[in-house]
Task: inverse folding
């Protein structure tokens, strides 16, 4: 079994946290992660300057009392610069507005490994590059800092130009609340591969299961209202998944009837764990993700149009049409 190192508040030496003292922290982007991490940093005693374009997000940052600057100015002011804009805009923004303000000894902190791993960020020599990647949506990054429940995050040092990059990584993770839940030592490669694997293997399989179940049940003569509520409209699967996280993948089975338990386990143990699904998942991991083929395809200029076309294709599928009708009838 491969195990990762984990750092939690109780195991961190206070001396390790000095890495942020006397340094200016800059948060670039005030969206989902930016607004949450900036607020957590401030409450941890490291009030950041915020860099954002002049629009609604900037207004929100100013209203919340942050020292708001242009992206160029904030990047130049920051010794530790958190890159919290959408992944697809990062390469151009770093090249044009952030990198010119970075000096040797500064630290660029990414919240996702994708662009760094695939070589899309041009960061000046002498600048540390580290990853502090919450496994949590922005709103909950804030809420779980405030209520001290915490959230896990993946951390790594990607380029240690100063020899002090690890201390900065841990201090940033701690300041945003990431060591309350546990900072798991990872890498941009691992974070990226697992993120893409969930997106390209796990979730398509789950969506396909629901789509196929809908088709089979409708063909068996059952109503759209009954089928869609059974499958997901009731939100029962969301409840089950919450219990999976709390009680365990199989630990939560005790919440179901004995008939359900017997039916689920009888069917599951009859499936071939190393069958077609395993081969498909391995192909996605190796041929699409680790090879870089997906990243190359997604970087092409026409990829955005293809995404729009794919949205149109699924919106016209039988389950989407049925869902719209049932929602309208239920007023949901
Ligand atoms: P958002 O989509 O919420 O970011 C919006 C922010 O980016 C706003 O401040 C917006 O400012 C700014 N922005 C958008 N486009 C541009 C542009 N072209 N130029 C300059 N600024 C721009 O991003 P997230 O918070 O979701 O993601 C930030 C990072 O965090 C990403 O690396 C992501 O992978 C990572 N992450 C996200 C998680 C999540 O749950 N959302 C979880 C873990 C990591 P404006 O439009 O006002 O200019």
Result:
């Amino acid at each position: 079994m491969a195990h990762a190192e984990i750092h939690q508040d109780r195991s961190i030496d206070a001396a390790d946290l000095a890495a942020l003292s006397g340094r200016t922290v800059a948060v670039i982007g005030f969206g989902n992660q930016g607004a949450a991490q900036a607020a957590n940093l401030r409450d941890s005693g490291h009030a950041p300057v915020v860099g954002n374009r002049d629009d609604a997000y900037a207004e929100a940052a100013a209203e919340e009392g942050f020292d708001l600057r242009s992206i160029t100015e904030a990047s130049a002011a920051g010794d530790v610069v958190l890159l919290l804009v959408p992944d697809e805009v990062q390469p151009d923004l770093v090249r044009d507005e952030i990198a010119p303000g970075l000096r040797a000894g500064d630290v660029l902190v990414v919240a996702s490994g994708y662009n760094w791993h695939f070589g899309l960020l041009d960061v000046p020599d002498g600048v540390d590059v580290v990853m502090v990647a919450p496994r949590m949506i922005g709103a909950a990054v804030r809420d779980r800092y405030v209520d001290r429940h915490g959230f896990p995050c993946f951390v790594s040092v990607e380029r240690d130009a100063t020899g002090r990059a690890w201390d900065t990584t841990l201090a940033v993770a701690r300041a945003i609340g990431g060591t309350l839940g546990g900072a798991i030592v990872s890498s941009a490669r691992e974070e990226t591969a697992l993120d893409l694997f969930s997106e390209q293997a796990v979730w398509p399989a789950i969506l396909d299961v629901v789509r196929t179940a809908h088709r089979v049940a409708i063909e068996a003569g059952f109503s759209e209202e009954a089928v869609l509520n059974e499958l997901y409209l009731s939100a029962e699967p969301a409840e089950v998944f919450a219990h999976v996280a709390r009680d365990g993948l199989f630990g939560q089975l005790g919440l179901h009837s004995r008939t359900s338990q017997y039916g689920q386990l009888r069917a599951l143990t009859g499936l071939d764990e190393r069958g077609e699904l395993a081969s498909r998942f391995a192909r996605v991991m190796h041929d699409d993700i680790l090879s870089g083929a997906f990243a190359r395809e997604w970087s092409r200029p026409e990829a955005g149009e293809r995404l729009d076309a794919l949205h149109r294709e699924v919106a016209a599928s039988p389950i989407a049409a049925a869902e719209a009708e049932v929602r309208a009838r239920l007023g949901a």
Observations:
- Residues 29-34, 52-53, 55, 57, 84-87, 89, 93, 111-112, 133-134, 137-138 surround NDP (CB under 6 Å).
- The radius of gyration is 23 Å.
